[in-house]
């Protein structure tokens, strides 16, 4: 699923930048529900893709 989220982000680019808020909200939700030490379902690739769009500030 994490890889699919990045694919969907890129494949929906024709919808414009407004879709980025939806992806950012999804990312925030899944990260808040992820268990401690769980790197797979924290969607790091989606986080990086959103950071690359300039829609999400880099963490750390």
List its traits.
60 residues, mainly alpha, 58% helix
Low-confidence stretches: none
Order of helices and strands: HHH
Secondary structure class reads mainly alpha
Rg from Cα: 11 Å
* Main sheet specs: none
Helix count, DSSP H or I runs of 4 or more residues: 3
Basic shape: globular
Distance between the termini: 24 Å
**Average pLDDT score:** 90
Strand proportion, as a percent range, falls in under 5%
What portion of residues is helical?
55-70%
Secondary structure: number of strands? 0
What is the element layout, followed by pairings?
Blueprint: H1 2-11, H2 19-33, H3 44-53
Helix pairs in contact: 1-3
Report on this model:
The chain has helices at 2-11, 19-33, 44-53. The chain is mainly alpha-helical and 60 residues long. It has a domain at 21-60. Helix 1 runs parallel beside helix 3. The chain is globular, with a radius of gyration of 11 Å. The N and C termini lie far apart (24 Å).
Short description:
The chain has 60 residues and is mostly helical.
